[in-house]
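Q: I'm writing up a methods section and want to include an example of the input and output format. Could you take the sequence below and give the corresponding predicted structure tokens, formatted cleanly so I can copy it straight into the document?
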Amino acid sequence: MYTPSSFKFNDEERIIDFVRKHSFGIFFSESEGRPEATHLPFMIRRTDNGNLQLIAHFARANKHWQRIDPNKEVLVVFHGPHAYISPAWYKEQQTVPTWNYSAVHITGTATIIHEKDTLRNMVVDLMHLHETESDGNWDPESGAETTEKLLGGITGMIIDVNHIEGKLKFNQNRSEEDQLGVINNLDEKKAPSVKEMMTELRNQRT
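A: Here is the clean output for your methods example:
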């Protein structure tokens, strides 16, 4: 990923937190010279030996999983807050529009999981995670019978992470006045999450 030094985002723990907050990613692999992509919810975890893994599952009917080569690297892309930035918001207006955005790219090797107990644990962990984050009150254990029936319709995947890189492009290369101009114009209607992230980055520098 092209990332000028002003926008580099390398802190591993912050990247893990980013992935947890923006966990719906795009999984890319290559088969017979052609790229293929599937949109999937992911979990990220650290193993007992300190390595990172991404956990996901496919609908079994999605044949993408059959074309994954365990000897080739795969890529998962996670997107965070983003927004159009007007040059009218800068103090110095002799410039052009841009787009502020955040992203994390993770590469690794994928292992396909068919073993039923492992699949069940993966799915239940994912449900618990998102029920907690959504303030839902549904207990995955209450749907255990239905979950058990549906396990035959999915295929699991574990990605052993080889490399992570992050990018936070939020006008860090511009003056303090220009950054404040952007923050002040990103109101609650336009892009509240971008405004929040820019304010956080600015506070970290002061």
